[in-house]
Amino acid sequence: MVNKASLDREKARKYLRALCIQIERHDYLYYRANRPEISDFEYDCLRAEKQALLKLYPEWSQDEGPGSDLGNLHFPTTKHLFPMLSLSNTYSQEELLEFFHRIEGKVQAPCTYLLEPKIDGVAINLVYKQGHLEKAITRGNGYVGEVVTENVRTIKEIPLTLPENAPEEIELRGEIYLTERQFTHLNEEQERLGLETYANARNLAAGSLKLLDANEVARRRLHFIAHGVGFVSNDTHLDTQERLYGFFAQWGVPVFSFVMPGNSAEQIWNLIARFRSTKEKLPYGTDGVVVKVNDRLLQEQLGVTAKSPRWAIAYKFEPESAETLLQEVTFQVGRTGVITPVAELMPVDLAGSKVARATLHNFDEIQRKDIRKKDIVIVQKAGEIIPAIVGVKKDKRSASAEKIEVPLQCPACGAPLLKIAGEVVIRCTSLNCPPQLRLKIVHFASKDAMNVDGLGPKIVDILVSKGWLKDVADVFTLIDYRDVWIRLPGFSATSVDNVLLAIEKAKNRPLGCLLYGLSIPHVGVELAKKLAEYSTALEQLMRLSVEQLQEIPLVGEIIARSIVDFFANVRNQSIIEKLLQLGIKTNFLEKPTKHPLNGKILALTGSLTRLTRVEAERVIASLGGSVGRMITKQTSILVCGTNPGNKFAKAKALGIQIWNEEEFLHHVGILHADRS
Ligand code: IVH
């Protein structure tokens, strides 16, 4: 953990920045992309480091809410009546005891606590009005969430109506989860179909909630358990958390099977030990327990901080870890050239399997943890996450321990390595790097990209080694090799023709899929879709500047630069040129390119009465325009609703054209259509 003596101000500032970049990235991977790369424990460590640093330098604190899963515009958003906060959490018994001391210092009477599982699922807010399930809203950013009611209605154990004794209006909160059994079953099915398997039950549940096909959601068989309420009208009889659960059960709402009351820290600690030994029997994944003050009036008195209630705490269990010798460090090249340092370990038994390799994540992490070759390191394995080195036994460091040098050349192709400003990782700059090429082609062919069934890693390896695939565009020239290909061992005319058919179909994939498939650093599947929404064709996107790109939601400076750099690269340009020549469609959205809004950047301020903001953004995008978050010189038009914000004054000062709602509706053709 950091301390002020070991860090001067300048270093601390840099360190904080590096931590923030990493946390932001992992928030994105966890909340939005549903494919976390580090365990919750490692993530919590990063956050704890950040908190420790901000304690030393409180002047750098910025108000930040809990992470956000808001992302695409497929579902309407709505405000929670009461915010959906996070739980403060700890891995240390000492900090847990502090929680009890804090409470007992504030309340006079003896306090009862409830101990319950911390279920590893996805939070949901169920709004019942007059006894009917009106809306199901994801947590979103804690204040605003996405309305996924139709999907949630497929969860059989969530009652659509509550009995008469339920409050008139209630925000019923809980967790949606997949049983471990169902998770295994769904993954087996994916495997049988030759499709990619899902990362873990929690992320599969989160992804399922955002599906556009409710039938598919139903097939996934999600479950629900309630753990609290938000707004409740007239809740006088719900005076304890325990009674709340009693009512839930009476209303047919699923509740935890393990809820234990305790009157002291000691009692709760003993119950935690009991829980540890039985948790494997629960049908869902848990990563710890939650301790809550039972009395709801007391809960209210204790109140909340910006992020979490003061009346509850999550005590999380550290994943299993083991000590072993770090023998050597090797470097792996990823799809976008990222070099990942890998620890080659003296094999050690961990969580039921032998572990001989573990990720060191990146060089900032190595430096932060001060890991050296020949150190005794702590290796940890949490669920499905690849084993990672989480710490070093410095007291066991030998004199032969060696610093891990940052390589200057790519271990696979020898090209120079580059650290891009603002990024944590270092990358191989070569576009001919063999492992990158293989991974890029496999990615290009993957389901969310060009969806070429049958072009998996093994086949790609063969085709690359034949010299038929030198870049992703070559996928579309494979037809030239058909007659030789069908004679290769392991192939037949049928299997090859099936792949070729899938390749032909891929020529018509949506722009977002193509963009995702190009492996532009930082451009994941969701961002690619967003970029496609805001451009009429690939060629148009290629011309956007860093500033213009930043007008697109989700695009910050690092991403914008990465996109511009990618398209500025001559080799990438020639790949795209080749794709175009081979007949790959890149202007899919059939937008009326002659519409006056095409290519224009609009900004919105105030509230519109006829459209939601999301609808307005969609209309603009469908006409080839884009929506900027701020007023800049590039802004073409400001659409001004009622109660405009300070964008109005800024636009006026810059002489930017301003439309009222009526003018906007007229220009986009909505008013006209309505009247006819
Ligand atoms: S109570 C103010 N109880 O953990 C938040 N939450 O890290 C009160 N969670 O967003 C929530 N098990 O989705 C509560 N037994 C439990 C829980 C639980 C899992 C989730 C919940 C919350 C997150 C916070």
Q: CATH superfamily name of the largest domain?
A: DNA ligase/mRNA capping enzyme
Mean pLDDT: 88
The radius of gyration over CA amounts to: 27 Å
What's the total count of β strands?
24
Major sheet characteristics: 5 strands, mixed
Structural class: alpha+beta
Shape: globular
Supply the CATH architecture of the largest domain.
2-Layer Sandwich
Low-confidence region ranges: none
Share in helix: 25-40%
Q: Determine the CATH topology of the largest domain.
A: D-amino Acid Aminotransferase, Chain A, domain 1
What is the CATH C level class of the largest domain, in words?
Alpha Beta
Short descriptors:
alpha+beta; Helix Hairpins; D-amino Acid Aminotransferase, Chain A, domain 1; 5 domains; 5-stranded antiparallel β-sheet; binds 2-(butylsulfanyl)adenosine
Question: What do you see in this structure?
Answer:
About 35% of the residues lie in helices and about 20% in strands. α1 (about 10-30) runs antiparallel to α2 and α16 (about 510-515) packs across α17 (about 525-535). A 5-stranded mixed β-sheet has the order 2-11-10-3-9. Strands 14-13-12-16-17 form a 5-stranded antiparallel β-sheet, with no helix packed on it. With about 675 residues, it is an alpha+beta fold. It is built from 25 helices and 24 strands. Bound molecules: 2-(butylsulfanyl)adenosine. The site of 2-(butylsulfanyl)adenosine has 16 residues, from β3, β8 and β11.
Structure summarized in a few sentences:
Helix content is 36%, strand content 20%.
